[in-house]
Amino acid sequence: MQCYTSNSNKVSKIVQWLFCLFCGVILCACNMTKFVPRGQYLLNDVKVHVEDNKDVPAVDLVKYIQQKENTEILGFWKLQLGIYNTASLDTAKWTSKNARKIGEAPVIFSPELVDASCTQLKRAMNNKGYFRAIVDTTMQVKDRKVNLAYHITTNEPYSIRNYSISLDNSELSSVAQNQRYTLVHNGMQFDADILNQERQRVASTMRRRGYFYFDQEMLQYKADSTRGKQQIDVKMELQDYIQMLSDEEKENIFRVYKIARVHFHIDYDPTRLPEDKEMYASSRDGYVFTWVGKQLLREKMLIRNCPIKPGDRYNENLVERTYARLNQLAPIKYVDISFEQISVDELDCHIVLSRGKLNTISAEIEGTYSAGDWGIAAGVGYVNRNLFRGAEELSVDGRGSYEWRQNGGRAIEAKVSAELKFPSAIAIDLGYNFQNRPDEYTRSIFNAGLEYTFKQPHIGLNHQFRFVDISYVYLPWISDAFRDQFLQSTNILKYSYENHFIVGLGYSGNYTSFRARQPHRSYWNLYYNLETAGNLLRGLAKPLHFNIDQESGNYELFNTQFAQFAKADVSVTYNQMLHPKHRLVFHTDLGVAIPYGNSQTIPFEKRYFAGGANSVRGWSARTLGPGGYRGNGKLIDFNNQSGDIRVNLNIEYRAKVWSIIELAAFVDAGNIWTIYDYEAQPYGMFRWNEFYKQIALAYGVGLRLDFSFFIFRIDFGVKLYDPSRLYGALAGSQWRTVANGLNWAEDMTFHFAIGYPF
Question: Is residue 215, in this structure, part of any structural domain at all?
């Protein structure tokens, strides 16, 4: 959802007021020691320097520092400290209370925490094999502020001279000595993290082979650094307490266990006593089912999504796969898997399931204002997550909008869509869109599709195959005035307002390197999409003797032209984590659509648009481009400002300043272009010697409110370079600066939206 306004004096006044407020905070931040007690010092700056080793990044050592300076934005601005310093000494005042609550108290320098940081840094270097590392500190004291620097000299690392294994079990020894998979080898640099990973590998392999009670904590390393200069011998062996166990106790640890039965405890609710409702039970082929009230899911569905099978060996991998499969079922909110030993070598598996909310209803409303045009829209959605008791998910959405235009025109639009997802990852969707502009036209769009989704969560990769994607655009009525004024001069508009079919297929995928276990590490997001339309129909046109439109020469299906094109999109986003609360986000979005065969233009529904809350934010939605084209303010600009090629380049700095509040600063670049030179879109065609001059630039600031389940976003975007001013009477005024005629009412745009732009 997004809404926007532009060309508003009120908005510019708000921006000026916010600017004054920020200036006030900056001035208060200048007196950073306002609340530092006498005789103490503000920890102003903390740095980590590795003096002699480029292989040890200083940024990786910051986490071992026990005391850090106040939070900084953009690497220098202590905004939260500045807010805190706006408080007065009278803590009873409302303004003082809130300034202290929102802001951040000054960090008071602690010599004890400096010593603790040195100890942690020394320990970290030892874990990486730098046993002779030296950690020193330097301090600069001025104006009751301390600038602290940690200086680390690593010296030469220790390497493993001889790695040996001494384990009192043949199976365990075989796993540990497997040269194909082992992470430790002679000659490598000593690294405690890698040694620990090797313990995890060995233990995990044993648990995959049925050794239920084996754990990585049963393994230990003994190291001897006296064998040679900067060399160390490492031996893997069983923990001392394991070696002292009796043969019978050792036998329990090194025993392969099998699954006797799998128990499903369905619809578990810890807040509800079992006696509240009658309990039921059934069993089949080693599976036992117990449930309360109405059974949530069919038994066959649960068995199909449970890789743990009665009679099989215990396998840790199958446990993880069962978690993943069951958690993907829409009606299930919570999954817990545990095991109970019932005999010498048998386990019962207990799977506890609790239901989520099976039916939900949502609603939204939004309003828009742009250049004198007002609009209101409302939507409602319904989701059933267990339609046939087989985890089928049905989603139904309805939306309606009404627009009042400055010129007296009206626009009505209504949409309804439905999607049915099956646990097999197959989905069927249907949709209908009705558009009515009383003075112009009436248009209906019908669509249907069949798709298959394949997920690889362990590597962060998802695939979506669109086997069938059908759209039918139907225009029962177009006014004569609209046809004469807009549809006679250009094919691009004419085709958009003719009945046509789009019958295509496609493939899309997305990848993320984000890992929940490492939320503060930098990561990539990649999205790509390929789709084609009309090829099958064009191949059947001659053999099946399709009709040919006499005017265009194109083939027709049921006396209606069909589109033929190819389209490709790729989007790359990189999140550079500067700090747990600060990150720099780089985004690139590229796309191209090429008509051919039975089409001279791309259907309007498949064309690109530029400007808006998720594009170049100095422009309102769909008001930028193509190329150097400048709209004339007429309604037809909605169609004319579309293209076949898209380029978006964005950089955004995001800083969490307090609780749910996040600030942002951004620079956007991009535009759209057409493949061919259309008369109605002058300067809009992509040309290699011109396109770089037509890349629009914008900058701005934003506010985000993070409510966990959704993010509310406000952005103020300002035009910096406007390619529509390259040509004609406005030539020479493309750079929008104060010295070059910057107009806040015209060149600034306000957006609000749900979610991040990328």
Answer: yes
Nearest to 11 by CA among 740, 739, 730, 700: 700
First CA to last CA distance, the chain: 14
| 27: Cβ contacts below 8 Å, ≥ 6 apart | none
331 and 383 co-located in one domain: no
Nearest partner of 500 among 430, 557, 547, 581, judged by Cα: 557
In angstroms, the CA 303 to CA 120 distance is 50
Same domain for 408 and 350: no
Structural domain total, the chain:
3
Task: Note whether 151 and 137 are within 8 A (CB).
Answer: yes
- Boundary residue ending a domain (218, 253, 288): 253
Residue 273 belongs to what domain range?
A: 258-355
Residues of the chain with pLDDT under 70: 1-30, 74-75, 91, 227-228, 268-278, 366-373, 405-409, 485-493, 633-639
What is the maximal distance between C-alpha atoms in the chain? Answer: 97
User: What pLDDT was estimated at residue 33?
Assistant: 85
On whether residue 334 sits in a domain, the answer given is yes
Question: 325-348: b or e for each residue (b if 16 or more CB lie within 10 Å)?
Answer: bbeebbbbbebebeeeeeeeeebb
Q: What is the CATH number of the domain that holds 268?
A: 3.10.20.310
Examine the domain organization and report whether 339 and 417 are in the same domain: no
In this structure, are residues 441 and 434 in contact, taking their beta carbons and an 8 Å threshold? Answer: no
Give residue 402's pLDDT. Answer: 86
Both structure tokens of 721: 């370079």
- pTM here is 0.72
Whether residues 289 and 342 fall in one domain: yes
Q: Is residue 238 part of a domain?
A: yes
Among 253, 272, 287, the domain-final residue is 253
Beta-carbon contacts of 363 under 8 Å, excluding residues fewer than 6 positions away, are 378, 379, 380, 381
As a residue count, the chain comes to 758
440-483: pLDDT as tens digits: 889 899 999 999 998 887 788 999 999 999 999 998 888 887 77
Per-residue confidence (pLDDT) for residue 130, from 0 to 100: 94
Whether 685 is in a domain gets the answer no
pLDDT digits (tens, 9 = 90+) for 364-413: 776 655 455 677 888 899 999 999 888 999 999 999 988 776 666 678 89
Alpha carbons within 13 A on the beta-carbon side of 413: 13
**Residue 263 and residue 351 share a domain:** yes
